[in-house]
Amino acid sequence: MKKLLAVLCSLCMMAAMLTGCGGNGNGDAVQTASTDENKAAADTDTMIALITMDSIDQHWVTLNEGAQKAAAELGVTVQFMAPNTKDDAQQIECVNNAVSAGAKAIIVAANGPDAISSALKEAADKGVKIVYVDSPANVDAEATFSTDNNAAGKTAGEEMKKALAENNITSGTIGIINVNAATDSCVMREEGFRSAFEGTDFELLETQYGEGDAAKSQSIAENYITQGVVGIFGCNEGSTTGAGNAIKASGGASVIGVGFDKSDAIMGLIDGGFLRCTMAQNPDVMGYEGVKAAVKAIGGESFGGAVTDTGVSVLMKEGGAEPAASADAAASKEWKIALITMDSIDQHWVTLNEGAQEKAAELGVTVTFMSPNTKDDAQQIECVNNAVAGGYDAIMVAANGPDAISSALKEAADKGVKIVYVDSPANVDAEATFSTDNNAAGKTAGEEMKKALAENNITSGTIGIINVNAATDSCVMREEGFRSAFEGTDFELLETQYGEGDAAKSQSIAENYITQGVVGIFGCNEGSTTGAGNAIKASGNADIIGVGFDKSDAIQGLIADGHLLATMAQNPDKMGSMGVEACVKALEGEALGGVVTDTGVSVLTQ
Question: Which among 158, 113, 108, 153 is positioned nearest to 134, based on CA atoms?
């Protein structure tokens, strides 16, 4: 069978090579390949292999659909190569076949972190670009598009606790059905789920493994039910389907079933009342973004191993089957939402507001942009208080810092106002948060600077850092990530200087750094980055490496002219749009569970 599979995989890949690539697509500068990149891809017959855990689960079928959509837009060939069942040997064989057939990139959802690693390492050593979707292995990759499985698993646990409380159940045993002990994504879901029950009177039984097979999982669930469990958690599509079918067969409406992934079978079990809810991922987004990243990597763009959380939502009977931040229907009433960012000047916040206003128009709600002209805690607190006094139903806020604004937000929440964070949270529970994984993005910025310094044969020296202030959590995390990239090197990172996000102040700081002879300067936000680039430009010293954050016309111009190496481009429009959708969902009664969604970042260079 394995030899036959190898032959079939090779034939499929060779067929893909012979058919070539068709068409060109257009793309956004941040998220997709540009028109020139698409033409280059089509001209060189770019072939990409997509290797998932199996080819049967609807999760992987949907992921492939997203990948094929991107492939059609970008003019590349994506060959879906996956075994019919989860099997390490077959997955390794598919990797080897992809390499031998000339794939320029492999997009892979690894069965486990270790088994496939050697094969992927050999592929990477031969120049094949590796991109992970859903589940990574222990080999460096260009980028990863996956769910924060630990956080999502904890959300599943909270949903089960909530349902048990509604049924006045305060103790009992709970069964867990997982795929196996090696599939990292599912292991993390289980860990998150178990953490939700710490300190309670519930006993979580020893995990049973069904290999993702619905029939095996149903048998396991039936055994759990005979033991008198009060709840069952399924860690993937097959596990969840099996658990739901077992609860249905038992007629045990008192057994709470919670699971993962979305399929017609799972949604039917939820609608029938046999499952409480499921954590719905976005596999189509994984596949779509994975292909775009693969094409960019083939074209020479660096992602620095960036990890993007593609999001998860709680789907239940009451809330329907729409994933979080993807509601298209109009709201039931014209809700009033206040958008309060750190200031109203930076292009980052202007763009965030544009995304919010566009979505508000689609949903038939009102979003009022209420922000001070400059970063000031007192003014931001005043905006929150004004929103409450003005009768706003929800507040979308990018907090200056985690603490200063917290009391005002707590008072707002106590009065029934829904809180959603965009870009930067405070220390108050919220419905949802849409932001960048700033630590990871900061580390990527550091890696980009290290690479440029190495290309200039610079192995030591001082590096300056310009931040906004010591309280803005998002920027503090960026700095921490940046500093971590230089641990163990001979570079000295100087004491951070604060420019309050003001380009002129930041330029003065950068000019002082330059007089000290720094080899690089890192700006933690738009104003800091613009100031650093302007100082490097004024100095005429082309050897100073400038790396920063955010995207604006000024920053893009400084990159184009060679005064900045790169900037980490966030997606503020996406934060605004998804934030408004989350507000509406919360106001309409849907529980979002405090989910944190990474809205992504890309490295923009000349």
Answer: 108
User: Considering only CA atoms, which of 371, 380, 387 is closest in space to residue 406?
Assistant: 380
The DSSP bridge pattern shows strands 366-369 and 490-493 to be unpaired
What is the Cα–Cα distance from 290 to 434, expressed in whole angstroms?
A: 20
Both tokens of 394, joined, read 């929800």
Mean pLDDT calculated for residue range 2-28: 36
DSSP symbols for 223-241? HHHHTT-SEEEESSHHHHH
Apex CA 409: angle with CA 403 and CA 414, to 5°?
130
Phi, psi of 277 (to 5 degrees): -170, 170
First vs last C-alpha separation in the chain: 49
Strand partners, 173: 203
CA–CA separation, 422 and 18 (whole Å): 47
Residue 346 CA, distance from chain mean position: 24
Matching residue, tokens 């599979």: 5
Per-residue b/e over 433-468, b at no fewer than 16 CB within 10 Å?
bbbbbbbbbbbbbbbbbbebbeeeebeeeebbbbbb
Q: What's the rounded Cα separation, in Å, for the pair 544 and 539? A: 9
Asked if 65 and 51 count as a contact pair (C-beta separation under 8 A), the reply is no
Mean pLDDT of the chain: 87
| pLDDT recorded at residue 167 | 85
Is the separation of the CB atoms in 232 and 28 below 8 Å? Answer: no
What's the predicted TM-score (pTM) here?
0.45
pLDDT of res. 49: 97
- In angstroms, the Cα distances linking 555 to 93, 296, 368, 393, 480 are 46, 21, 28, 36, 22
Cα–Cα distance measured from residue 22 to residue 139, given in angstroms and rounded to the nearest whole number: 32
Stronger pLDDT, 233 or 606, i.e. the higher one: 233
SS3 string, 137-174, reads CCCCCCEEEECCHHHHHHHHHHHHHHHHHHCCCCEEEE
Give tens-digit pLDDT for 104-114. 999 999 988 89
Helices (DSSP H) in 402-500: which residue ranges? 406-414, 438-455, 473-485
**Helix or strand (DSSP H, E) at 277:** strand 277-280
List, for residues 554-604, the tens digit of each pLDDT value.
Answer: 999 999 999 999 999 888 888 999 999 999 999 999 888 888 887 777 788
DSSP letters for 62-124: HHHHHHHHHHHHHT-EEEE---SS--HHHHHHHHHHHHHTT-SEEEE--SSTTTTHHHHHHHH
Around 384, how many Cα atoms within 13 Å sit in the side-chain half-sphere? 30
Tokens encoding 459: 């192995």
* Whole-number pLDDT of residue 155: 87
In this prediction, residue 321 carries a pLDDT of 35
Distance CA 199, CA 588 (A): 32
